[in-house]
Amino acid sequence: MERARLWRVAFGRRPNAPVEVTSILIGEKIPCEITLCHMNDEVFGTNGEQAGGRMSRRLFLRATLASGATLLVGRAATVFGAAVPGDNSTFAIGGDLPVNRLGFGAMRLTGEGIWGWPPDRENAHKVLRRAVELGANLIDTADAYGPETDELLIAEALYPYPKGLVIATKGGNTRPGPDKWVPDGRPEYLKQCVDKSLERLKLERIDLYQLHRVDPKVPMEDSLGALKEAQTAGKIRHIGLSEVSPEQVQRARKIVPIVTVQNRYNITDRKWDSTLAYCEKEKIGFMPWAPVGGTRGMSSAALEKVAKDRGITVYQLGLAWLLHRSSVMLPIPGTSSLAHLDENMAARKIQLTAEEWKTIDAVASQT
Ligand SMILES: NC(=O)c1ccc[n+]([C@@H]2O[C@H](COP(=O)([O-])OP(=O)(O)OC[C@H]3O[C@@H](n4cnc5c(N)ncnc54)[C@H](OP(=O)(O)O)[C@@H]3O)[C@@H](O)[C@H]2O)c1
User: Fold this and answer.
1) What is the position in ligand 1's atom list of the atom closest to the CA of 170?
2) Concatenated DSSP letters for 342-362?
3) Which of the residues 48, 221, 244, 319 could staple to 248 if both were Cys, CB 3.0 to 4.6 A apart?
4) How far apart are the two ends of the chain, measured CA to CA in Å?
């Protein structure tokens, strides 16, 4: 990564000790100069963002929790998001694309109604870069987000891409206007979608291409036939589906290997439990969209209370629950806020006891 940053990390009584930052998640060093200085709880504004180049003790703890950072002062090594051997924090998409299970959904970075450019384009870049810094190496997007602008933002912010970053895009859902979605699964349309996404994302091959919707007007076999052709031509590495039943996945797998399914799913919406069960059995990645409830959120006073009692937010609880729910679960929470991003990414380090999960499940099943 090219971006050099000067962080002033507040850290106890060892001011100005230099440390180097190494990200083993993205397989390369993040060139950073970190100067350790005294911590201060007051240097951040209410929105939690950095002010005056310093970091509060509270935010430092939050940031290190989010990244799994371990500071080894003196021996000059900082490890971000180190995967513990034998843990289930990673999943290999298609068996050969290892990702940290908590990813990032980029849809919320576009303009109002998932339409056009965001009002603050630089903020969108910052969110994307920070997501990667915090260990999200699965980023979900679609040609329809914007349309086009979401893929363009990703390339603007992250190209040349760090090693190991998986960009998952989609095609087959069109955008005639803000908040309007119309499926189009015609093979000739999908073929040109793939080519255009490759161009916008500046990629030679798309790691994961998902059929955004099965078009009821077009046999699924025809739509997937077009994606299979693109795969054979080397334009797509793996293929996924979205909003599908187990029967549809089974049918699709007769045409082409399916490595992921992206359906709406969260702690308060379990409509697609049967598809999740199928994915678990078949070791197919399950990418829940609206993992924190989308714009509706997870409006449950009972869950809010359970989260508060454990000193976490309901968003963190929702994400930790998903990660706990299944080892094939790959949540892709979306946000345009750096503070929310930090909060969400910290969820992967939340450890609750079996007893606590039992209580949470009981509360959630009543929502
Ligand atoms: N396959 C499909 O058909 C489909 C459909 C929809 C979405 N998706 C994908 O799934 C991803 C996630 O879905 P989604 O964006 O609909 O739902 P989501 O991630 O559950 O929710 C995003 C919403 O929650 C808010 N939020 C996120 N974290 C928060 C926090 N810690 N505190 C308070 N508010 C928070 C965001 O607002 P702020 O910006 O203010 O944080 C945003 O409005 C999308 O980015 C997209 O990649 C796929």
Assistant:
1) 1
2) HHHHGGGG----HHHHHHHHH
3) 244
4) 44
Provide the number of structural domains found in the chain: 2
Tens digits of residue pLDDT in 143-171: 999 999 999 999 999 999 999 999 999 99
Instruction: Give tens-digit pLDDT for 306-354.
Output: 999 999 999 999 999 999 999 999 999 999 999 999 999 999 999 999 9
Query: Three-state SS for 338?
Result: helix
CA dist., res. 58 & res. 52, Å (int): 16
Q: Which residues line ligand 1 (CB under 6 A)?
A: 105-108, 140, 242-243, 262, 289-295, 315, 332-337, 340, 343-344
- Same structural domain, 326 and 178: yes
Domain of residue 238, CATH code: 3.20.20.100
pLDDT beyond 60 at 242: yes
Between 343 and 46, name the one with better pLDDT. 343
Burial class (CB in 10 A: 0-12, 13-18, 19+), 245: middle
Stretch 15-44: mean pLDDT, rounded? 32
Q: How far is the centre of ligand 1, averaged over its atoms, from the C-alpha of 222 (Å)?
A: 31
Tell me: do 25 and 108 sit in the same domain: no
Tell which atom from ligand 1 comes closest to the C-alpha of 340: 31
Per the CB < 8 A criterion, the answer to whether 174 and 144 are in contact is yes
Structure tokens given for 366: 């009543």
* pLDDT 10s digits, 257-282: 999 999 999 999 999 999 999 999 99
Residue 301: helix, strand or coil by DSSP?
A: helix
Domain span holding position 17: 5-66
Q: From ligand 1's centre to the CA of 293, what distance in Å?
A: 7
Q: Are residues 114 and 255 in the same domain?
A: yes
Q: Are strands 18-23 and 28-37 parallel, antiparallel or unpaired?
A: antiparallel
CB 347 within 8 A of CB 336: no
Inside any domain, residue 81: no
Active site residue 145: yes
Counting ligand 1 atoms within 8 A of each CB, the residue from 114, 337, 341, 345 with the most, and so the one to mutate, is: 337
Number of other CB atoms surrounding residue 269 within 10 Å = 18
